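Page 42, continued from yesterday. The earlier attempt failed because a stray header line got pasted into the input along with the sequence. Redoing it now with the clean sequence only.
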Amino acid sequence: MKAVRYLFGILIIFLIVFPFYWVIVSSLKPADQILKPDLFPKALTLQHYRELLDQTSYLTNLSNSVLVALGTMLCSVLIVIPAGYAIYRMKFAGRKFVSRLILATYIFPGTLLLVPVYQMMSDLHLVNSLWGLIVINVTFAAPFSVWLMQGFFDSVPVALDEAAAIDGAGRMRTLLQIILPLIGPGIATISIYSFITSWTEFAFSSVLITSEELRTLPIGLNAIMGQYTVRWGWTTAGAVLTLLPVVVFFAFVGRFFVRGLTAGAVK
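This time it went through. Structure tokens are written below.
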């Protein structure tokens, strides 16, 4: 049985790692070898990376994605923390109903909301604006993040709130000075979730952004592929470069994300 488990584990690792390996290796192959099924390239080149950075708007797309992802992450944290504190630590009429209603926003597929969201953004003059993408990404990331924070707020004893109240601390001071330092892994978890959600968002970006200089990475990479021909070298090089910021970000705070999901699942 142990051998079967090892084989199963190796198979799972292979299925996860191989697509990344194939994309990285393909991005380093010369153009005439890129479609050949060679596991190990006969020659390596950085030509696709140089052409991608020099001849396309990749760097502009990258800066737009960084702004949108960081803006979404910051706004999500600023909204989710007080919202979660109000729902899971304060008592008011309809609190349980609100806590259950949060996830109801995910009943409808996002593509069904494209038209009404576009009309709403047009009325707010947020079409073809990075602020519009930030608003949409926060709208879809915040509900799940609030629900995710329940375990972290529940893990902090209510007695700390009561002790702070006896000492004269108000709700905001209790949140900032007592609760916030104790839910650090939760904040890291929702930060990563918001960042990745914004980084990979495609549907609303393709509808709300019309000018080339405001395209984010998913839309920019789609444009690079072209309508009738596919530049596989640019596409694979762009995929590798797009993946790098997420890998670096996850390398620094990923342990908080894993620990946070585990803590939120059992508490």
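Notes: The mean pLDDT is 86.
Reminder to self: strip header lines before submitting.
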